[in-house]
């Protein structure tokens, strides 16, 4: 006899995996012995079919953001009305990018999102990042600048701590490697210019693009950002390594130190 997916601690009121729990509940057709409360809950089945049809016939432009999120949650939580969950996620995190950029712990603060669904949402986010990154492979990065910005924004804009990332380029300005060298606090990341240059030499890189995020959301460079960038430039230049730019990523935009003529 198959046991329901309850947690191993013996508390039968808590499912170990909310996807399996809801999937295990076979809904009855309304009117066939189903209590009134359950009949009310079954309304979402027709709603799902209508939403899928709209997407199939008209594409994503026919759907609001919460409806796109609903379509995804249909598969992650098969036996539950996911519209309230989708709306709660967007209310909590503001945008679709905010939802997928949120940490698993924060996602689970939203009612209806358990560990398994939070994991799946982060997995989808990772696939998106890898897809954007793959667009840069083998291409001259300076000629694909919008792709660089899109990738960095997807990877870093919603991080709750500062990250210092380096894009290492070869002599054709093609991407060799993309590495997060340091992770700091909400408003500071320690950066060591000698370590930056050392890693560039290890990878035989001839150029760098520096990137870091501002969790506050404001990408305006600080005096410390500018001074640190100039120090890295001065350290790298004698070794034949150029610093093309330092990009600062915020939730709603970015700043380029080169574009601002600060380097």
TrEMBL record:
Domain MPN, first and last residues per copy: 141-263
Keywords on record: Hydrolase, Metal-binding, Metalloprotease, Protease, Zinc
Coiled coil: none
Positions of the UniProt region annotated as Disordered: 1-48
InterPro entries xrefs: MPN, RadC_JAB, RuvA_2-like, UPF0758, UPF0758_CS
Entry similarity comment: Belongs to the UPF0758 family.
Family matches, as NCBIfam families: PRK00024.1, radc
Protein name: DNA repair protein RadC
Taxonomic lineage from the root: Bacteria, Pseudomonadati, Pseudomonadota, Alphaproteobacteria, Hyphomicrobiales
């Amino acid at each position: 006899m198959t046991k329901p997916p309850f947690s191993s601690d013996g508390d039968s009121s808590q499912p170990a995996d909310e996807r399996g729990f809801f999937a295990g509940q076979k809904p009855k057709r309304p009117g066939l012995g189903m209590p009134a409360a359950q009949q009310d809950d079954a309304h979402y089945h027709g709603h799902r079919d209508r939403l899928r049809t709209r997407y199939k016939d008209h594409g994503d432009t026919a759907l609001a953001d919460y409806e796109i999120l609903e379509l995804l949650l249909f598969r992650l939580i098969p036996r539950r009305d996911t519209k309230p969950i989708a709306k709660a996620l967007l209310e909590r995190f503001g945008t679709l990018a905010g939802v997928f950029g949120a940490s698993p712990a924060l996602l689970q603060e939203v009612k209806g999102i358990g560990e398994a669904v939070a994991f799946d949402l982060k997995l989808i986010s990772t696939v998106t990042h890898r897809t954007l990154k793959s667009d840069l492979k083998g291409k001259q990065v300076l000629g694909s600048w919008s792709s660089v910005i899109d990738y960095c924004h997807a990877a870093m804009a919603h991080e709750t701590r500062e990250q210092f990332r380096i894009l290492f380029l070869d002599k054709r300005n093609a991407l060799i490697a993309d590495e997060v060298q340091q992770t700091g606090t909400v408003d500071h990341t320690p950066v060591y210019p000698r370590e930056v240059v050392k890693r560039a030499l290890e990878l035989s890189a001839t150029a760098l693009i520096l990137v870091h995020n501002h969790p506050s959301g404001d990408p305006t460079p600080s005096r410390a950002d500018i001074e640190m960038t100039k120090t890295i430039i001065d350290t790298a230049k004698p070794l034949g390594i150029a610093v093309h730019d330092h990009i600062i990523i915020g939730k709603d935009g970015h700043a380029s130190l080169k574009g601002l003529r600060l380097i």
